[in-house]
Design a protein that fits this description.
Helices cover 49% and strands 23% of the residues. The chain is built from two helices and two strands. It has helices spanning 24-33, 37-52, and strands at residues 4-9, 18-23.
C-alpha cells in the first residue's frame, strides 16, 4: 500500500492533463471532510498566481 495518492488535475483554464501526488493521509482527511481538493487546489493556485502577478 502506498502512502500517496495520484490525482488527475483538469484546470478549467487549460487543456492539459496533470498528475499530482499528495500524501494519502491528506487526501483521506479531505475526503472525510467533504472537501473537493481538486477545486481547492485550483483556487489556491489561481490566488497564488494573482498575488505574484
Amino acid at each position: 500500500m502506498t502512502n500517496k495518492r495520484e490525482l488527475l488535475f483538469f484546470p478549467d483554464f487549460e487543456k492539459k492533463l496533470y498528475y499530482l501526488t499528495i500524501p494519502s493521509w491528506l487526501a483521506d482527511k479531505a475526503d472525510d471532510l467533504g472537501i473537493n481538493y481538486s477545486q481547492t487546489l485550483q483556487d489556491a493556485l489561481k490566488e497564488k498566481i494573482a498575488a505574484m502577478a
